[in-house]
Amino acid sequence: MVLRQARAWAAQTAETDSVCFFVGTLSNSVTTKYCIFTIKRTLYPIKLKIVSDTKIIIFQHPIEEIWSMQASPTQVVKFITCYNFLTDNTCQMKAALWNIPKNNDTNDIIPLEKLADIDTTPYENELKTITYHPTDSTKAVSVLDNNFVLWDLNFKPQVVTVGTLTSRGQPKFINGKWNSHHLMDQFGTLIKNSIKDLDFNTLRQYYFATCGDDGFMKFWDIRNTNEPVWSIRINKFHDQLVLTSSSDSRVILSNVALIYSEPFNQIHKDNVYAAEWSAADPWTFASLSYDGRLVINRVPQKYKYQILL
Amino acid sequence: MASENSSNPYDINGSNFNSELYIQRLLKECSLKQIMDHEADTVLDTQTLHSDMQTLVYENYNKFIAATDTVRKMKYDFNQMEESMEKLEKNMENITNLSEKITETLLPDRQKVIKLSSTHSLLKKLQFIFKLPENLKERINEENYSKAVQDYLNAQQVLNQYGDMPSFQGIHKDCEEIIEELKTKLRTEFHKSEASTKSLTESVDLLLQLKEPADLLCEDFLSHADVRLANQLDYLKDMHEKDVIEFVDFGSNGFLSDLCLVVASYKDMFVNRTPQDVHEFSDDFDTKAISRLNTFVMNNMKKYFELVGKRVDNVADTAVLVRALDRFYKRLQAMNVLCENTDFARTGTEIVIAAGRRQCRNHLSNLKQHLHETLAKVRQTLASKVSSDTDGGLPELQAMLTVPIIEKVKGVLQDLLVFLQPELSFGLKPQFLQRFCVDEVREGLVVGFLHHMTATANGFCTNLDTPKFPATLLLLLSKMCLEFKDTSVQYLLTSTDDLFNIEEYAVTKSDLTLHSEINENFQKAAQELLNHFVRLQGLNVSQMLRKSVETRDWLHTIEPRTVRAVMKRVVEDITAIEAQVTVLYDDNDGQIDRSSDSSRKTHSVSRHQYRSNWSSYTPSHLDSSFVSNIHKLFSERIEIFSSVQFNKASILTGIIKISLKTFLECVRLRTFSKYGLQQIQVDTHYLQLYLWPFVSDENLVHFLLDEILGSAVHRCLEPVLMEPSVVDIICERN
């Protein structure tokens, strides 16, 4: 499956019956599409095009470039996107809450339904990401410049609180993630520009992992508190499995407990900016490269058995 | 002849002479004249013989007459003697009678005298006993204890025998009291701290004679000796500041001598007693006494060893230390003769080994210190140096990192050789040699230090974030590791092995760390340092590029007239890095000198090919995307953080790869206007022009720059490129 250039990538977290991923394309051309893939979990996903049960549904996102997106943790049909809005030779990052229309059986391109704009413009222009609370779909945090803003999405998005970091050298947040422990109210943010992504360990509350420009995965203990990998994801069910994707066109699955890693590098031809575990099947993951190639993989049987047995 | 003569009837002197045959033969054989002569001879002979016979007869007759006379005289004498004998017999009889009479008269008196003399001796004994208490007192006052004890023991038997008689009871009691007093006196003598071992021995001997329980005495004796030895040890402890040789001498002469004396006298008193004394002790006393002695000796020696161990732990001068250890060990060997059950020499060897180990450790930490000081100095020099004269001084710094270190290690080895002098008392122990040479010097010191060097080197590679040292240091260290790997490690280990006869002392080869293993570590460290250097420099350049892309408003930029200053800065920085690298790493991969005109031509040809990708660019995305993808299909994957080789081109390629990759990623995150895109076009062309001489494979630079421009085209709202000729002019102008 070859798409346009794409960076945005999310697992449909609320969908637990089938393996679903969202891909947001990144193109400033005239026709921009926005897609959902639904894959039956019984399949062995090797390459999308040869799996007959794989369903690709294309939705039209009315506004052009999608830079980041996340699916609602509870409602299958809802998700948020951050997009680059181009007008009169200026670009502005904006965010919106979307709804998937019900009739999606046809093969046509289905227009999306915009539920609400999330107006972040009062808090600087550089919107990096908006992420949902891991379990509560009424809460989301947006990360911009040196601010992070907590939103209440119940009806119309409303600002609950704003956190601002002021320090020497004017550091800026570049990414953020909810920490699912501590009564679900912690939000981790990244400051250093050379670090690209972080993920919290859902099973052990003090541990999180980061990746960065120096090509290292790092695992941290939050109580004690540095490197070009673009994306890192810890498996929610088996915390020893860590997925990284990098700009050298590689996706690497690592078993942290046993220190071994399996590169899946034959498939991508361009930088892989995103990798994500499936919400429905803990053994399935997908990676998306800049050239729009999407690859869905499973944890190889031998490692799976090693972990389970 | 004789037998012939005897049987010859013609021999005139023979017994078988036959005169008839003789005459006949004469008549037959001889002439008349001869016969006449023979007759005359014969007549003469006969006459001579005849006179001889007459003389003999005469002489014999005379002798016979003399004998007859003698016999007659003897007969007369015997008669006279008989008369005198009879007279003598009579006289003797008279004498016997007289003697018997005298004996009879003297007998009663003699019996009386015998009785008197026995009474006298008894009286004398009694007098001794009566006088005993006073005598004893007097002796004690005179402090002549041994005589007093002697007297008492003499009288004791009598006293015991007649003890029940009332007159003796008093005396017995007095004696007993006095002896008790004596015992207590002896005891106090015993407990006096200043009492010498000899006087102690005397006291104990006397007490033993007085039948004091030997067990108790042993204990008393030892505990007292303990106190005195403890004093000695205390004194030794106070001597800690003094010279170590003095310390050991004092220990040997004071403490050890005393201990020997104690042991010797103890043995004399309690263990090696003459057989008639043995009955005084119970059967198992011997074994008990010996075991008690042993624990005593062990305790004291342990304390002594502790002190010595502590003292020799901290001696700076190896030669002095070795001399002290030698003396200490010699004395111990002598001790061993004294106490056969325990092997102090072994403990001594342990202490010597520990001291050796300590010395090695000290040297090791000195070496480490030296290494760190050298590093600090190098860092300081690097930091203080003006950045412009980059190549000046690097070779000197490089030399500073290797030569003094090797010299220092050699010096240390020489210093430690003192331990191996053949005349040292502990020098011949294989146990010592093996552990000291192999474990301590080779493995602990030399190999340990080499490991420390690689670990220190690796320590510089851990953190990318905030390097507190100039990046050039990494380059220097990497080169240093390489040099060590190539020559120094081999040299140091070989000279260590030679100096300390490692081959001979090593029990198994597997105990020894191999050259190859250390070399491998150095190789790894050198690689790691170089990789780190590349990353660090790459990230430094990246940072500039990133800032330049992120901070600019690419949608509202004017038409490019010049190359951005950042790009010039990047080229300058990389040129500076190249200058540094050139000093230490030559380009030995035989790459062609591209500064010549002809190669420049080939380069520009490739440049044209490269540009063709985008010169045919049309607004249709699909096409360009396809071109790019097809291009990728046929080009090899670029490993951004791959290991670099030890040559200039590889190092610079690594840095440039990292920088351009960052540039690419930053461009992909931005949105460009037409002029923005053109600015990127100018910038990449500029980089293309100036970066290619640094790398080994210029296609790599082309490819990355191509990607950057391609990504910028994708991110551009109105993708229109500049005329290549204009780009050329702009770049040339700068």
From TrEMBL, chain A:
* Swiss-Prot/TrEMBL GO biological process terms: protein ubiquitination
Cross-referenced InterPro entries: EIPR1, WD40/YVTN_repeat-like_dom_sf, WD40_repeat_dom_sf, WD40_rpt
Name listed for the protein in its UniProt record: Protein TSSC1
The record's similarity note reads: Belongs to the WD repeat EIPR1 family.
- Name the SUPFAM superfamilies on file: WD40 repeat-like
State the taxonomy lineage: Eukaryota, Metazoa, Ecdysozoa, Arthropoda, Hexapoda
Which branch of life, at top level? Answer: Eukaryota
Kindly indicate where the leader peptide sits in this chain: none
What Pfam families does the record tag this protein with?
A: WD40
From TrEMBL, chain B:
Q: Which residues form the Exocyst complex component EXOC2/Sec5 N-terminal domain?
A: 4-244
Coiled-coil parts of chain: 71-105
Keywords, sorted A to Z: Coiled coil, Golgi apparatus, Lipid transport, Protein transport, Transport
**Alphabetical GO biological process terms:** endocytic recycling; Golgi organization; Golgi vesicle transport; lipid transport; lysosomal transport; protein transport; retrograde transport, endosome to Golgi
Give the superkingdom in one word.
Eukaryota
List the subcellular locations: Golgi apparatus, trans-Golgi network
Pfam families according to UniProt: Sec5
Q: Could you give one GO CC term from the UniProt record?
A: GARP complex
Subunit comment: Component of the Golgi-associated retrograde protein (GARP) complex.
What protein family does this chain belong to?
Answer: Belongs to the VPS51 family.
The role this protein plays is: Acts as component of the GARP complex that is involved in retrograde transport from early and late endosomes to the trans-Golgi network (TGN).
Q: What is this protein called?
A: Vacuolar protein sorting-associated protein 51 homolog
Organism this protein belongs to: Trichogramma brassicae
